[in-house]
Structure formats: C-alpha cells, structure tokens
From TrEMBL:
ATP binds at residues 30-37, 147-150, 184-187. It is found in: Cytoplasm. Pathway: Cofactor biosynthesis; (R)-pantothenate biosynthesis; (R)-pantothenate from (R)-pantoate and beta-alanine: step 1/1. The gene is panC. (R)-pantoate binds at Q61, Q153. Beta-alanine binds at Q61. This is Pantothenate synthetase. Its EC number is 6.3.2.1. HAMAP family: PanC. The keyword Secreted does not apply. The lineage of its organism: Bacteria, Pseudomonadati, Chlorobiota, Chlorobiia, Chlorobiales. Pfam families: Pantoate_ligase.
Length: 284
C-alpha cells in the first residue's frame, strides 16, 4: 500500500491507473477506522481492481462547537488496518493541501441539506459535498462507496453527483452493527461504559418501530413518538430528532403508504456524544 499526501501526486497516479484501464474504487473516511469502514473496503474490492482510501478530517463539515479538534486521529493504526484490508493507495492530505490559502468554493446541496442533520448542523452538508467532490476530482474513481449509516449524507452525495454530472457510481453499504445492535462509529469511543450500554437504545427504538410497522400500524408520527419516549427512558439520552422521512427528499412523513418505503432517522445525544442511526422500512 502506498501512502500519498499530495493531491497533485494522487491525481497523477489515478490518471495513470485509468490509462492502464484499472477500475478504481474509493472509500472516503475521516480515519479512526472501525469494522464499518473495513466493510466499505470489502465492498469496494468486490467491484474494483484498485482501491483508494482517503483519510481526511474535513474541517468544513464541523460546526464551531463540534468535535473537530478532539476527533480521533490514530494514523499509524489506521494505515495498518487499511493495509491489512487490502487498500492499494491511502490518500491522507493535510488541511492546507485541500483548502490552500485563497480557497473559496463551497457547494450548496439545496433543500435536502437543510433538514434533520442539516438543520442541527448548519453548513455540515455543504462541507461534506465540497470535500467529496474535491476528493472525487483528486482520486478519479469509477466507483465510490459510502455507508448507509449516514443515510442523509449518502442521499446528498447522490444528488450532488447527479446534479454536477460527475461520472462516478455511488454505492451504498449496509450499516455495520455491534452484536447488541449499536451502529459502529468512530465516535463510539467517546462513550463511557455506562453510556455505551445506554446507546443501545437507538437500535431498540428501531426495533420497536419495526414491530409496530410489521403489526400493520400506519401512523408513523405516533410510532416515532413511542420510539422517542423509549429513547428518553435512558437517563443520559437526549433525542435531537427522531422521525420517519421520505427516502429521496428527507421530508418528514407522518403516515405510511402501502408499497412505499420510508426511513426512520434519528440523532441522539448520549451524554456529550451525538450518535445517529437509521433504518429503511418497507410498508406492505
Ligand atoms: O462519512 C464521512 O466519514 C465523511 O463525512 C466523508 C464522506 C469522508 C467526508 O468528509
């Protein structure tokens, strides 16, 4: 595995790989790699002959009061995990290399970026969309794999790639979960052992909703309220949002339509740590 820090060098290598007819897959991360990221690599390797991983803690997607400065950056450990997973190139630029002096362009992904995660974290999706488009331009992949845990991010990225005519296939990868259902996340390491136990309530809320939908209930707003009440039974859990949404627009929906899928999305603070999760439901 080759480690590259310079965007121009990465771009040159990607161009060369393309000339050699290599099918390139990219997995973009902010590091602090866990099983979920390694599953993204596995999926990329199943489709692509060459896999590039990017590690970049992107400052433009963090709000001023968020965890940019304390975000874990175990680079040596990440590089070892990436190598063992079969990554061919690890692109790890500095913030100055991605946003040099005079940098000005930010992408506005439109209304979807203002809902839920976008409402709670103003500017977040503009930062994500901007860095993703830049990293696509640098790594020149045919395929990019993103986790469905960040379901709204994935929808935003699909929108941006379609709207800007970027020739890349976007593949969503299923959420990786611990044995008790907690979605893997780089932020799980912030949780104390008591908070870690309480954090399973996100998955328990999903299960509750699943049981109600399977029982044929259609009033999604009431089901969401019941799921939120369950979350609140944990002493350190504070829901930021918990709602059913239309998959494509992330507009809230209150009533299930038979034959149409919907997604339950939630963000919950457990102590000081903000966790997100989601589940796609078919309504029969
Ligand atoms: O999902 C993430 O880790 C980040 O939002 C991404 C896509 C790497 C952009 O910084």
């Amino acid at each position: 595995m080759q480690i590259i820090n310079d965007p121009a060098e990465m771009q040159k290598i990607a161009e060369k790989l393309r000339l050699q007819h290599q099918y390139i897959g990219v997995v973009m991360t902010m590091g602090a790699l866990h099983e979920g990221h390694l599953n993204l690599v596995k999926l990329a390797k199943a489709h692509a002959g060459t896999v590039i991983m990017t590690i970049f803690v992107n400052p433009t997607q963090f709000g001023p009061d968020e965890d940019f400065h304390r975000y874990p950056r175990p680079f040596e450990q990440d590089a070892a995990l990436a190598r063992a997973a079969g990554v061919d190139y690890l692109f790890a630029p500095s913030a100055e290399a991605i946003y040099p002096e005079g940098y000005a362009t930010m992408i506005d992904p439109g209304p979807i970026a203002t809902r839920f995660e976008g409402a709670s974290r103003p500017g977040h999706f503009s930062g994500v969309a901007t860095v993703v488009v830049k990293l696509l331009g640098i790594t020149r992949p045919h395929l990019a794999v993103f986790g469905e845990k960040d379901a709204q991010q994935l929808t935003v990225i699909r929108r941006v790639v379609a709207d800007l005519n970027i020739a890349v296939t976007i593949l969503g990868a299923p959420v990786t979960r611990e044995s008790d259902g907690l979605a893997t996340s780089s932020r799980n390491i912030y949780l104390s052992s008591d908070e870690r136990q309480q954090a399973t309530v996100l998955y328990r809320a999903i299960q509750l909703a699943g049981r109600e939908i399977t029982a044929g209930r259609r009033e999604l707003d009431t089901i969401a309220a019941e799921a939120e009440a369950l979350v609140r039974t944990e002493p350190d859990a504070e829901p930021d949002y918990l709602s059913f949404v239309d998959e494509a627009t992330f507009e809230p929906i209150t009533q299930a339509t038979p034959g149409k899928a919907c997604r339950l999305v939630m963000a919950v603070r457990i102590g000081k740590t903000r966790l997100i999760d989601n589940w796609r439901f078919e309504c029969t």
